[in-house]
Amino acid sequence: MTSQEIRQKFLDYFKSKDHLIVPSAPIVLKDDPTLMFSNSGMTQFKDFFLGYKTPTAPRIADTQKCLRVSGKHNDLDDVGRDTYHHTMFEMLGNWSFGDYFKKDAIAFAWELLTEVFGVPKENLYVTIFEGDASENLERDQDAYDFWKSHISEDRIINGNKKDNFWEMGESGPCGPCSEIHIDLRTPEEKAKVSGLDLVNNDHPQVVEVWNLVFMEFNRKADKSLEKLPQQHVDTGMGFERLCMALQGKSSNYDTDVFTPLIAKVEEISGKKYTGILEDEKDIAIRVVVDHIRAVSFAIADGQLPSNGGAGYVIRRILRRAISYSYRFLDMKEPFLYELVAVLKDQMGAFFPELEKQGNLVTEVIKSEEDSFLKTIENGLIRVEKLIEQTIADGSKVLPSEEVFELYDTYGFPDDLTRIIAEEKGLTIDEAGFKVEMEKQKLRSKADSAQKVYDWVTLETKPENFVGYDQIESETYITRYRKVENKDGEFYQVVLSSSPFYPEGGGQVGDKGVLENATESFEVLETKKENGLIISLINGLPKDAGAVFYAKANATDRKNSQANHSVTHLLHEALREVLGTHVEQKGSYVGPDYLRFDFSHFNKMTEEELALVEEKVNHKIKESIALQEFRSIPIQEALDKGAMALFGEKYGDSVRMIQFGSSKELCGGTHVKNTIEIGHFKITSEGSAAAGIRRIEAISGDKSEEYFKNLENQIHELSQLLKSKDVVRSIEKLMEENASLKSEVEALKKEKAKGEIGEWKNAYEQKGNKQLLVKKTSLDAGSVKDIVFQLKKEIPTSVTIILSDADGKPMITVGVSDDLAADYQAGAIVKDLAKEIQGGGGGNPGFATAGGKNLDGLENAYQKALNI
Fold first, then answer.
1. Is the pLDDT of residue 560 over 70?
2. Which residue numbers delimit the Alanyl-transfer RNA synthetases family profile domain (predicted)?
3. Nearest-5° angle of CA 709, CA 715, CA 719?
4. Residues 566, 681: one domain?
5. Cα separation of 799 and 791, whole Å?
6. Do 529 and 600 lie in a common domain?
7. pLDDT at 103 over 60
8. Which residues define the annotated binding site?
């Protein structure tokens, strides 16, 4: 059975059991403050379990893209080292929301595995929760009794709380679980050791394949447990492990989930994969084929590599793959991007985002490879210098602070530093490096540390967002909870009628005030969590049950919604001017400005930018009224031509915003008419990432301020120039400046001529050769002219000039033609450039290098004297 057939058979089975089959949610989570990525199949159903939303069906099944690389669930360091851990993996799952429970969940799992997939019953073991006295939790006797009707009792194993009590996180829905383990060993191995002794003992051929979670509790912030109003089932089966079992393999990497990718790596690298666990080459190949899947899906779902948050995690995964291929596959040029096409062929039919975003994914990965390979090359220079200094200090251990700086500041892999050090007979200060890493983690943890208490419920009133229609409302606090962080003590509140827009869809959350007759509190931010609109206030009311009045900041809201509406008009204009390949890839909408990222591979021309501005402002002046479809079936919205963004998770009913021909699915706040936007002005256009351009712009009040500032600047220039014709006056100044520059250049040449005579007499005789090492403040052009003249006029000479012109270090080397066989200008300048933390090059007769460390010129001078 192929992996595609296995996936389809799973879904068909549960469809026959009256389950609604739903697509995978995006792997990147944009509106969940507790998680960056979907790390389990149940992530997209959290609101159902918590009771914040009504399930779309009582029974659901799917395959979910998951990523486990941070937080509680982090498998990154295990990837490549064994046969079954992955960063990105598929989790096949079936769910019951208050419908069937343990009996049917167990029966479905057994029937599918043994009868549909044909797994031999004698290869299976199951675990149940043994109970936990500290939490007054009894043994899961019901699960035991139901399993007895399917499997012999000696194959039912008691499991502790760690293995058999599943929790979503520090708080939230949880419950006992029952794992199904499969023994894939040979009959000879099974005869020697019983599978019973190997379950949950990290044996590579006795692995958990399916986990049935019986959600019946809610873990509160104070760690106590309370019963959920309904009982739910949440199951997760590792797709890759299932393929390993059904295809008769001993490693996930030997299945057709990975073999096409491995074959491509073999073809490009010329290295043969043997599947040996300890072989560094094979580990590298496993890392590469695993990580390319994680990175590709994340980018396709809208998460670009970056230096912070989820983007940093994706960049880290990709750089780990590049580092392994550089060190163990001898791949010094970009190649990972070539694997995207193979991945598309494998999985594009089931995950259409790979097909749709394939070109973007390819370009982004290639760009990241180019960048990081340069980082490695520059890092190698720094490592060599560090090694030289360490040896000069009479030590054999590289200091931890410098190794950590290479890793943390310059992105150079610490394990690559270890390898280079070992080749030179050195080591790194491992204990010190761990201390530095721990310091960094503690700093990061301190910055993000937050203690969140349990909700205190006051009212059972409905909790509604009224901000589309009004920015002020009479309201009640329905629930509140205390929050403590590095800035102090605050309170999060949920309101019965909230006019505060929660951060989402690129738009910032509303600020404002919450007040009554005696008290007033500042609303510092508004966010959405598990379906609840939560506003953060700077204190707890004395009477939290009183009637309050909520007011959003009117000016900020007005400007934010003008900027949000204009992003829709901008999106449409970009597609008209550049082509329909343009798609939104991210945005920021605030009261001061807007940022819009979109797919496009070239820098926009001035003409294109002007045309986009013209089109948007034309739509603004047309005074187009907003047409809002507040709740419309998603298919109907798409049929009307609405733009849906890849990487977003939409429900069955959506909100569609229309301004004339511009139609988008959007939850943000908007102007009632485009004329309210005022004027649109692009302030910058640049690259956000490979294949992604970024426009920053302003509208409304900020646009007025922009043109007022321009008017003031022109007035000030007119006063300075004592002329109303500012353009002609500046042209005249430029002409005068050009004339003065010519005079300065002539003076420089005269000065250089004077220097030549002095420098000719400054050469030192070194045997039968001559060396000049000279410091100067002459500019680079003058130095170049002099060096070329000297290397022609002075035979058997090496000329080295160190310049500090304009406060920047520059080294210039010239070698006379008759010494070309013995001395290379490029090699000399490369060696000396280490002292100024720079690099450069040229040809055997002439080379230059610039750097960052001006103080290093003295070291370079002393070093040059020894040539």
1. yes
2. 1-709
3. 140
4. yes
5. 7
6. no
7. yes
8. 564, 568, 666, 670
